[in-house]
Amino acid sequence: MKKTIALLTGGTTGEWVVSVKSAATIAQNLDPQKYEVYKIMLSENGWFYEPADSVKIEIDKNDFSLTLNGRKIKFDGVFIAIHGSPGEDGKLQGYFDMIGLPYTTCNALTSAITMNKGYTKAIVNGIKHLHVAKSVQIFKNGDYSLDDIKKQLKLPYFVKPNNGGSSIGMSKVKHADDLEEALTKAFKEDNQILIEEFVEGREFSVGVFRAKGKVTVLPATEVIPANEFFDFEAKYTPGATEEITPGRMTEEEKNRVEEVVAAVYEQLNCNGVVRIDYFLEHQTGNFYFIEINTIPGQTATSFIPQQVAAMGMQLKDFYTQIIEETI
Known about the structure:
This is D-alanine--D-alanine ligase. By secondary structure, the chain is an alpha+beta fold.
């Protein structure tokens, strides 16, 4: 008997465009023998199913059901492919928990916490072999001093919206005079900002998922951006970044990384597939945690599909494992 799955895409942030591309990849690779899939678009204007004839059919939010040609369709579970709010910050997860519908991502609490880079770093700090860059967290209308920040942190530093994704609103600050402009840019995206000391090292991104009861670490991707850092353009423009999968690591580094990222997954009580970004510091080889993404991109240029292929697995089998474990 086929399971009826809602593939939820869109969102209410600038990342909706990435979500639509991710959902297209997922839809192409969900096993039609096992799943009947309905793609649901979420936007500020509502939640809709759009069949081929383009007539929008609204979702009943009382039980997340769909009435199609007089037939009421209820779902066995939801594959959430929304980056940013409300798919990645716990809002949708809380709603689905309340109506008793399973989904493919981390739970509401983990999703909410991991959207905040500062809070996440505080939770993972203390894991063996994991380091975090020195940072300062500030609030839009808070009492902070630019001079104090400059005294506390060594240049260069990264300025990041604390709850953002896809590197939107992020800047690398090399000169202290440029800090104020970087804060203004970041505050357009969020009311909280993280200012972090720059770690000089090789950058990697690695997928981690739970299937058949065990945590599996995918082959890591080494990221060598042509731009100054791995910004939105570098992430989503084909050819703007050199990506090596599997990334170049010694056997010791690979084993240590797998141990650390599996511990991060467990410590944050993750579910489904997540992506963890990290540096290996040039001088020391130390693992520096950058951030975790609990709904990583699944577009044609995204890391997770690359890493699944490098593991020798078909995306169809990968998504089946995610659905079977979570739904």
